[in-house]
Design a protein that fits this description.
The protein has about 200 residues and is an alpha+beta fold. The protein contains 8 helices and 4 strands, in the order H-H-E-E-E-E-H-H-H-H-H-H. A hairpin with a 2-residue loop joins strand 1 and strand 2.
């Protein structure tokens, strides 16, 4: 049997009114599709675990975000990078912004199978055949931190895709929550100053 975390009940209760039915719906669809799923809070947002990280969701002032941990192996990542930064489903403001329950359940089953088989996200490689710019999903905790710091957010939006990716990879590759939080705070501080991730090594 799966588990439910009371901290997620509290998170939903404190969310904006428009977000509550969205989170409640997502939570039930996940539990229905994956009865053994375990709930937890990571980086201050709700996450779902099944033989590894499965998915996560987050609430913002005017939208919600929901995404799969290995979303690039499940959903097509085409579309507006600004929308994808909110998760594989873009900025969610109402239930109709989500796929049907049947389609969502199918995605969840795919995510479960990936974890069951120990599949890792594909290595990021550049090939001559690939001419499409690579986009990287902004994790929910970084997105939330940028929402709270206008200077950092504006700098991040001005950065080239490679500079954005450097920050995202540095944060998401942290081995512990504590390290991730330290990196997140440092990243926001540097971005607010207009600095790239590797600013120390750049020529003046």
């Amino acid at each position: 049997m799966g588990t439910r975390d009371p901290r997620i009940d509290a998170y939903i209760a404190k969310s904006a009114d428009f977000a509550k039915p969205i989170f409640t719906h997502l939570r039930e669809v996940i539990h229905d599709a994956c009865p053994e799923v375990e709930e937890t809070m990571k980086w201050s947002t709700p996450h779902f675990v099944y033989k590894g990280m499965l998915a996560g969701m987050a609430s913002f002032k005017a939208h919600c975000a929901f995404g799969f941990w290995k979303g690039s192996l499940i959903l097509d990542q085409r579309g507006d990078p600004a929308e994808k930064s909110a998760g594989q489903f873009g900025r969610i403001t109402k239930l109709s912004d989500l796929p049907s329950k049947r389609i969502l359940a199918g995605y969840i089953k795919q995510a479960m199978k990936l974890n069951e088989n120990g599949v890792k996200a594909p290595a990021r490689m550049k090939t001559k055949a690939s001419t499409t710019p690579r986009t990287t999903v902004v994790p929910a905790d970084l997105s939330a931190a940028l929402k709270r710091n206008a200077g950092a957010r504006e700098a991040f939006e001005r950065f080239s895709p490679s500079h954005r990716r450097e920050y995202i990879e540095w944060i998401t590759e942290a081995k512990t929550d504590a390290t991730r939080q330290r990196r997140l705070a440092q990243a926001v501080e540097w971005m607010a100053e207009g600095k790239s991730r590797n600013w120390k090594y750049q020529r003046a």
